[in-house]
Specification:
Elements lengths: L9 E5 L14 E5 L2 H5 L2 E5 L5 E5 L3 E4 L3 H10 L1
Antiparallel strand pairs: 1-2, 1-5, 2-3, 3-4
Length: about 80
């Protein structure tokens, strides 16, 4: 079986930034990095406002499908 070396990028929208107002903006789109261990614990590895990736509880976010043109724009901004 062939495995894709570049799995589809995943994006989420923040719906709860309580206690993380400096790190997460409500209603903003964030990129999620793959992290199976974090996911098993109910967390997501997100590139936050610092520009670094950190773990946050998955219930702070809602996954979204982002069109390719928007993905390219988001990745340029990173």
């Amino acid at each position: 079986m062939k495995h894709d070396k570049n799995p589809a990028l995943k994006f989420v929208v923040c719906i709860n930034n309580e206690n993380y107002a400096a790190s997460l903006e409500l209603h903003k789109i964030y990129r999620v990095l793959p992290d199976a261990d974090a996911a098993a614990d109910g967390d997501l590895r997100v590139i936050d406002e610092s520009g670094e990736d950190y773990l946050y509880s998955a219930d702070r976010f809602v996954p979204i499908v982002v069109p390719e043109a928007v993905q390219k724009s988001l990745l340029k901004a990173a």
